[in-house]
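S.,

As promised, the 2-oxoglutaric acid run. Input:
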Amino acid sequence: MKTAQCPELSDLEKYKQQMDTQGYVHAQGLFSPDEVEEIKALYTEMHRTGIPGFYEPDREAEDPLKRWPRIEHPHRFDERSRYYMIHAALRACLEAFLGPDPIATQSMYYFKPPGARGQALHQDNFYLMVQPGTCMAAWVAIDDCDHENGAMMVVPGSQYSDVVCPEKANESVSFTSEFVPVPKGLKAELVRMKAGDVLFFNGSLIHGSGPNRSATRFRRSFICHYVAGSTERISKFYNPLVTMDGEDLSMAPAIGGGPCGTTWGGAKH
Ligand SMILES: O=C(O)CCC(=O)C(=O)O
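Predicted complex:
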């Protein structure tokens, strides 16, 4: 199987500059076609069999997202998921953005089938409550993504905003209930991606996605979050974390209730 090549130093320097100025980096072709196919097959099979206690789709449900729910933390029960979460090509990029010894906090797989709702604009560090600093996402496209099937949207420049207390989302188009409006003077941009591309973005960057309006196309993605090696605390939902060498690691729980006060603190992403 052909595996992803780690980016060249010159690419990493370019990525780092982009991360600093726009809060996200679209790394094209980071995962090989073989890896994309392996990831797709892995989770297609997981959906087919279900994993009692971990992943139990409701095959009769009307809501496409109940028939094809996202898989949360697959690295906790599946070795291949853990392998991909700490993949060498991701690690090289993450070290450029976060410094030495980044730590993995979360893995997820979204099927986003035809007709599925998207995820309203939000900031990841509202949920992760990383202290000090913020988190970083690596969003791996498993299908080509565009407006029709609900590609990611980002708000460049918002990476420098504070994490804010969200408003109520329109749950007819979003499966989550929090919505962060676009700050004055900034605008949301669609990121069209090819399968194998990776979108890295900072935990304060406002981002999200619209519904999948295609009648036939899924919009699958493997999504992981990371923090810098110097991080001291994180929302308790994310423990145990994982080092980039694949060892479990426990971190102290975040202090305080986040920007909305204690009732919202530690919400699940
Ligand atoms: O994949 C999506 O549509 C949204 C994912 C997202 O916003 C996230 O993982 O933070």
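Helices lie at 9-22, 33-49, 64-67, 79-85, 88-98, 125-128. The mean pLDDT is 94.

- D.
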